Amino acid sequence: MSASAPTQPASKKKTPSAKPVRLEEKFAKLGLRSDMDFVLHLPMRYEDETEIVSMRDAGFRGGSSVQVEGEVTECDIQYRPRRQLVVTISDDTGQVVLRFLNFYGSQIKQMAVGMRVRARGELRHGFFGAEMVHPTYKMVNEGAALPTALTPVYHAGDGVSQTMLRKAITNALNKVQWYDTLSPTLLQELGLQDFESAVKLLHNPPPDVDQYALLEHEHPAWERMKFDELLAQQLSLKRAQASRRSQGATALPVVGALTQAFLATLPFKLTGAQERVLEEIRADLKQAFPMQRLLQGDVGSGKTIVAALAATQAIDSGYQAALMAPTEILAEQHFRKVAGWLEPLGVKTAWLTGSLKKKEKEQANALIASGEAQLVIGTHALIQDTVQFAKLGLVIVDEQHRFGVAQRLTLRNKAEAGKIPHQLMMSATPIPRTLAMTYYADLEVSVIDELPPGRTPIVTRVVDQNRRDEVIERVHAAAQEGKQVYWVCPLIEESEALQLQTATDTHAMLSAALPDCRIGLVHGKLKPAEKQIVMDAFTRNEVQVLVATTVIEVGVDVPNASLMVIEHAERFGLSQLHQLRGRVGRGAAASVCLLLYQGPLGHTAKQRLLTMRESTDGFEIARKDLELRGPGEFLGARQSGEALLRFANLEKDQYLVDKARNLAVQLLAHDLSTVEAHLQRWMGHREEFLRV
Ligand code: ADP
Ligand code: MG
């Protein structure tokens, strides 16, 4: 759970004294506070409730949602397969069963036999004939008027119904102070609608509206909203950039003795891509305003070495560098690797994580505060208040998307007074540039698009779990040949305890099946020291098969491991599978990844596994992931703040992006009051996220 999660206890039991949450608070959770917030809470989609379909005809409209109306003929609670409310309604042509898996007692009374219900939903043909599961419905009198226009559907939240939202929005539409942030002349030049009529149309579309254009966000009213939103984004990006530049950072210009000595010890040559991104980083570090660069590179592309070379530049320049990783296991890997490279060259390092003993923490803090530690490696313990850096020049954040916004913000307070440290963020989850720009201010992006030489591509097979015995045989054969194997246990999202249990069982099963192999077990509940012992043994090939939970997902680097088995691969997300698979294929040996699945597979799960089989290219996989999941989840949007674009699409609406960019430049130069008004309306409290 992220540190920025709400602090409410997760307990399901409601204590009698718990105060009911006020409606305002529920609205506030949706970001709805001022009248303008409500006005700009535009419909997510529309529903066509202008028509009632006879129950007989409804059966022929497979798939899409329909509206029917009829009298209740039966209303019962049934208990199989689980407690549910089952209501049968009928009209002259047939009957439809309404099924509610969650319901209130009041609904039973409401839908008593003889009452009239108007219900809409997807009609399916269940065991008992035509049925709708969880339809939206309302009680009506016979002959009640139908709406004449499309009905807007809003993004709602816990305890906030469409009706409540609609009421609050109507209210806000009536009392808000209408003004346009763009002048009539400007609107005419741009060929855009005025704000008030655009918003009003979107909330209450007239009956004769072009429905297709409305639904597809192509209506001129949507166009105005998209333009406004893009303009706000452009203004905000440009301002964030200006503010960041004015804040200043310490220039770290020296590529000196340490860097040279380090390069001389490397057993390999940097790839062309590594050289290129290193140049980009070096140039940034020489500037007296903070770098904010995202280093993207597929798993195994060699980001660590680049990060280490950025650190040596900071140290050569007389400043401290900090390297922060999201998990202890990954931080440890970095520590052993990077400290292993640099300590022999005389660099003084410190190690800091949450699990250190108090005394050890104090020692680390003292080294950091005195400036004696030139390189500090650890988890987010690094950015706690108690940690005071003497001369922090550079912060490197690995797997940056796993850190919350608040955590990244704290980093900025760690440099000398009035300055912010240079930031290098690393990610193996390639984020399309346009998307990255939407989430993080003026992020520069460097890409390592080349793997070190001598790698053989990983072969991936998708295997039915019935063939587990063959898989175990294969693991045995690999171990006999001196190769090493990861066996990844299924992800069990509902229960950490169950996940642990499964890992323990798998370890026992493999130990019994392969008595002549040494089998290790590593999971999230082990103490760091215990984890260390297992990982060390695996690194030294004293353990041949490592049973692991997803703790090994990132960063673990044992080049001799060349076979990976992932159980219940259908439960993992694409990028997670890609990360996991990246633990093999790190050495010269041909590597294999076996994705065990349990059928039958749903469409998305199947697509994911096929994508994994067909591609080892992280960018290709990320694209597919984006396609399957949509951008929201992609970046852990919950962590990185709301997506700043709700209506516009950077690719589809490119022509608007260009217009907005031009206008932003013009306004920033000549019309700051319009800039303020526009940002105030569209960004409000969200702008802070952009400055991170
Ligand atoms: P990632 O980008 O996934 O963090 P790493 O930095 O862990 O990748 O590098 C993966 C492996 O490749 C490591 O064992 C590293 O030492 C090795 N490596 C990195 N750069 C090169 C190179 N230019 N030539 C050969 N091997 C390299
Ligand atoms: Mg890495």
UniProtKB/TrEMBL annotation:
| SUPFAM superfamilies (UniProt xref) | Nucleic acid-binding proteins, P-loop containing nucleoside triphosphate hydrolases
| Enzyme class, spelled out | isomerase
How far does the signal peptide extend, from start to end residue? Answer: none
**Source species, domain of life:** Bacteria
Stretches assigned to the Helicase ATP-binding domain = 284-448
Q: Which reaction does it catalyse?
A: ATP + H2O = ADP + phosphate + H(+); Couples ATP hydrolysis with the unwinding of duplex DNA by translocating in the 3'-5' direction
One function term, GO molecular function aspect: helicase activity
- The Helicase C-terminal domain sits at 471-627
Q: What are the entry keywords?
A: ATP-binding, DNA damage, DNA recombination, DNA repair, DNA-binding, Helicase, Hydrolase, Isomerase, Nucleotide-binding
| Positions of the UniProt region annotated as Disordered | 1-20
Which Pfam families would you find in this protein's record? DEAD (PF00270), Helicase_C (PF00271), RecG_dom3_C (PF19833), RecG_wedge (PF17191)
Concerning InterPro entries, the annotation shows:
ATP-dep_DNA_helicase_RecG (IPR004609), DEAD/DEAH_box_helicase_dom (IPR011545), Helicase_ATP-bd (IPR014001), Helicase_C-like (IPR001650), NA-bd_OB-fold (IPR012340), P-loop_NTPase (IPR027417), RecG/Mfd (IPR047112), RecG_dom3_C (IPR045562)
SMART domains in alphabetical order = DEXDc, HELICc
Q: EC number(s) on record?
A: 5.6.2.4
Give the matching NCBIfam families.
PRK10917.1-1 (NF008163), PRK10917.1-3 (NF008165), PRK10917.1-4 (NF008166), PRK10917.2-2 (NF008168), recG (TIGR00643)
Q: What does this protein do?
A: Plays a critical role in recombination and DNA repair. Helps process Holliday junction intermediates to mature products by catalyzing branch migration. Has replication fork regression activity, unwinds stalled or blocked replication forks to make a HJ that can be resolved. Has a DNA unwinding activity characteristic of a DNA helicase with 3'-5' polarity.
Q: Which family does it belong to?
A: Belongs to the helicase family. RecG subfamily.
Q: What is this protein called?
A: ATP-dependent DNA helicase RecG
